[in-house]
Amino acid sequence: MPRYQVEMMIEFAGEIEADNEEHAEQLAWTSWGETYESPIVYDGVYSIEVEAVDEEDEDEEDEEDEDDA
Question: Which residues pair with 14 in a beta bridge?
């Protein structure tokens, strides 16, 4: 089965009480969550990018990992 590299940009949004913008940013790092009890919550998927993984590239990476061991 083919493999794909998937990158998703997920948006979280909400309001936080803070002393200033820097303080709000610091609080945002720990204020997000999966429930609406959190001040910052899931707001939507911004984008999804999918790229096929070349099996030859994957084999080369496996060989490099074995060489490093």
Answer: 40
The b/e string for 20-49 (b: 16+ C-beta within 10 A; e otherwise) is eeeeeeebbeebbeeeeeebbebeeeeeee
Torsion 49-53-57-62 (CA) sign: positive
pLDDT at 23: 94
Total tally of structural domains belonging to the chain: 1
Average pLDDT of the residues of the chain: 82
pTM above 0.70, yes or no: no
Which residue type is seen at 68? D
